[in-house]
Amino acid sequence: MKISKKGIIFLFITVWIYNQSVSSQVLNEETFKIGRTLSLIDAFYVDTTNMASLAENIIIDLLKNLDPHSTYISAKDVKDMNEPLLGNFEGIGIQFNLLHDTIIVVEPISGGPSERVGLRAGDRIIIINGEKVAGVGIATTGVRSRLMGTKGTSVNINVFRKGEKDILDFTIIRDKIPINSLDAAYMLDQETGYIKLNKFAATTEKEFMDAVAILQKSNLKNLIIDLRGNGGGFMTAATEIANNFFSNQNLLVYLIGRKTPRQDYRSTGRGSLSSARVVVLTDEGSASASEIFAGAMQDWDRGIVVGRRTFGKGLVQNGFYLTDGSMIRLTIARYYTPTGRLIQSPYNEGYDKYMQNYIKRYTDGEMLTADSVHFPDSLKYRTLINKRIVYGGGGIMPDVFVPADTSNYPEYFRALVRKGIDNSFVLEYADKNRARITSEYRSFEDFKNRFKFTAGEIEAFIKKGEESGVKYNESQYKISESEILTVLKARLANYLWQTNEFYRIINEKDIVIEKALKIISDKDAYDKILGYK
Fold it and tell me: Cα(441)–Cα(496) distance, rounded to whole angstroms?
């Protein structure tokens, strides 16, 4: 795309003055200085240049020098970035996978347009709008681009279905398809519920409370909230959920920036879960809104944080659109937990050093022992009720540390996962055996309790690995056999039912959940950790 000299200058003016006041000194000197440089390059440089690419690179480098989380998003990526947080996209509503160069319907999304016209799990999509898509090397992005589209538009697909002599034709009217931020919600025992959130989006609080309402019918009293790997999202989604756990008007988080006056976010004092015991699970992938929620629960001695130290993102971004539909997400403030803790990890040595410090968590022993995490006394704070010591300056440190379990994951297992052998094997297995399994196991509970892979099926899995370049290692297989079979069974449950059932199986081997359940089930131990005893 060619951008005029006038457009380039206006683009940079927009970066600096959109929705904010800028001094005339900056506008007249620095802003026009950049625009003038680009104009001179366009007018006189010896070689032809791509001015759009050059402008993007300047913006990217400019923001990278500010902080690690101020970023540039191209116009074509803005929609993809917004969809998960807004909670929906527009398309035909299927989960799919690619098997042997063919699009396999894993599951029509409940209530979506594909389910309404009768598309089924296991169907093979071979033609989309007259274009052959089977056996042509189509990629996942190619499938998405053909099936997604504006609500109300139609897409014609041809499907091969086992047991049918003829190819089936479907005309599907695209609609809004929900993107769930809640992966799983079920009871771990007679009183303790488990909820896993993968992000904090516009729909998260509703999803969360809908799940709680269902669990309360099963005598829910205690709740384990799994935020491991949850990279955050909308700050207000985190405060909306935290609001449910407080019976007073407690400060949950506050923001301060150079041009952003302090903004306090408080609970309403009408929390319907204010009497529930709560454990929050975190790890190095828990960031931003996850840290806001965990920090509020920890600072008020309201819940116990279990797991590993969180990522450490305490910077607040606002989105500013540029003239071509692209966007910059610019840091406008820092957020602080109720005790005044800034959770942001230091970034004063630059972006590369910032990322290196995060990677060092994996090499310096932090995944295995809490003693490897060192906080200076200057970052020491005390919780607001029981005056327990907590720290700022680099993530939320859990109240109860649980190391990463690496003992059962030798290189052979890791190689299988890296190559995606577990996923491709189960996809083929489910495709061949769906009818038999669903007739033999009449419910998920029946499947969970009785299903086991046969010796021959395990041999087929090992052989598939070898065909993909993962040489069988008997001693290492024996070490990780239980974990491998659990993963395969969980993936199979996901294909036959939903993500919730995946977690119901995979969590049975989870030592962090095991520790959390032990703590939350013992009121005396729970209260002692929080400092009430």
Answer: 11
Closest to 220 in 3D by CA, of 267, 278, 270: 278
Same domain, yes or no, for 399 and 436?
no
524 in a structural domain: no
Residue 362's pLDDT band, with cuts at 50, 70 and 90, is: confident
Question: Same structural domain for residues 265 and 169?
Answer: no
Q: Which of 127, 143, 178 is the last residue of a domain?
A: 178
| Residues 6 or more apart in contact with residue 516 via CB below 8 angstroms | 224, 279, 281, 304, 306
Tally of domains in the chain: 4
Q: Compute the distance between CA of residue 410 and CA of residue 301 in angstroms, rounded to an integer.
A: 39
Alpha carbons 87 and 204: distance in angstroms, whole number: 8
484 and 385 within one domain: no
Q: What is the CA radius of gyration of the chain?
A: 26
- 313, 326, 344, 345: the active-site residue: 313
Shared-domain flag, residues 342 and 204: yes
Bridge-based pairing state of the strands 154-160 and 168-173: antiparallel
- Could you tell me if 163 and 192 lie in one domain? no
The whole-model pTM stands at 0.85
For residues 532 and 386, give the distance between their C-alpha atoms in angstroms, rounded to a whole number. Answer: 7
Distance CA 142, CA 370 (A): 45
Which pLDDT score is estimated for 372? 77
424 tagged catalytic: no
Neighbours of 442 (CB within 10 A): 9
Active site residue 313: yes
Is residue 532 within 8 A of residue 301, CB to CB? The reply is yes
Contact yes or no for 420/488 (Cβ under 8 A): no
- Domain interval for residue 418: 411-512
The DSSP output letter for 345 is: P
Distance CA 187, CA 227 (A): 17
C-alpha torsion angle, residues 232, 234, 240, 243 (rounded to 10):
50
Give domain status of residue 532, yes or no.
no
Which residue among the candidates 267, 288, 290, 498 is catalytic per the annotation?
Answer: 288
Report the pLDDT averaged over residues 152-172.
88
Domain match, 207 and 317 both:
yes
Residue of 267, 286, 298, 317 with catalytic role: 317
pLDDT digits (tens, 9 = 90+) for 244-279: 999 999 999 999 999 999 999 999 999 999 999 999
Label residue 346 exposed, middle or buried (CB < 10 Å: 0-12, 13-18, 19+): exposed
Active site residue 498: no
